[in-house]
């Protein structure tokens, strides 16, 4: 994610619209058409603006306790028809409950909770994570 960790900041990533546009460019450069967007933690600042503006361009969405879910209304979420797997670890008592509270308004969602996993549930319980993710991917059209 530009501007996080050791990556240099990117000017366009300052606004939600800029982050959405950045993600559009990434998909375009990679030649991706209707990808499944997996979005853990801080990447929510990029994925959520994209989902709400262009959810129809995604085959699926997998938010993993993303940040920024409270920036949008229940009504905005209800307008998204993208199949979604809300995935989180049950030991993530910070972001996960807030994200679930907001994302549950997505009409085409289901939830997978990884027992004994924290915020980085994909690292804590990789086999359970991959099982849940692959199960979701198999059900997509």
TrEMBL record:
UniProtKB keywords: Cytoplasm
UniProt cross-references to SUPFAM superfamilies, sorted A to Z: alpha/beta-Hydrolases
- Highest taxon listed in the record's lineage: Eukaryota
Instruction: Identify the stretch annotated as signal peptide in this record.
Output: none
**Organism classification, top ranks?**
Eukaryota, Metazoa, Chordata, Craniata, Vertebrata
Query: Under which name does UniProt file this protein?
Result: ABHEA protein
Any one GO cellular component localisation term in the record: cytoplasm
User: Where does it reside?
Assistant: Cytoplasm
């Amino acid at each position: 994610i530009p501007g996080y960790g050791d990556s240099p900041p990117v000017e366009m990533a300052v606004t939600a619209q800029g982050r959405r546009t950045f993600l559009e460019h990434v998909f375009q450069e990679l030649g991706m058409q209707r990808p499944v967007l997996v979005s853990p933690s801080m990447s929510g600042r990029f994925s959520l603006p994209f989902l709400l503006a262009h959810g129809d361009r995604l085959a699926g969405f997998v938010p993993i306790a993303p940040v920024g879910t409270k920036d949008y209304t229940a009504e905005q979420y209800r307008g998204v028809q993208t199949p979604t797997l809300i995935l989180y670890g049950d030991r993530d008592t910070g972001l996960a409950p807030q994200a679930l509270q907001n994302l549950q308004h997505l009409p085409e969602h289901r939830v997978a909770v990884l027992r004994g996993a924290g915020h980085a549930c994909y690292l804590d319980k990789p086999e359970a994570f991959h099982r849940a993710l692959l199960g979701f991917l198999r059900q997509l059209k």
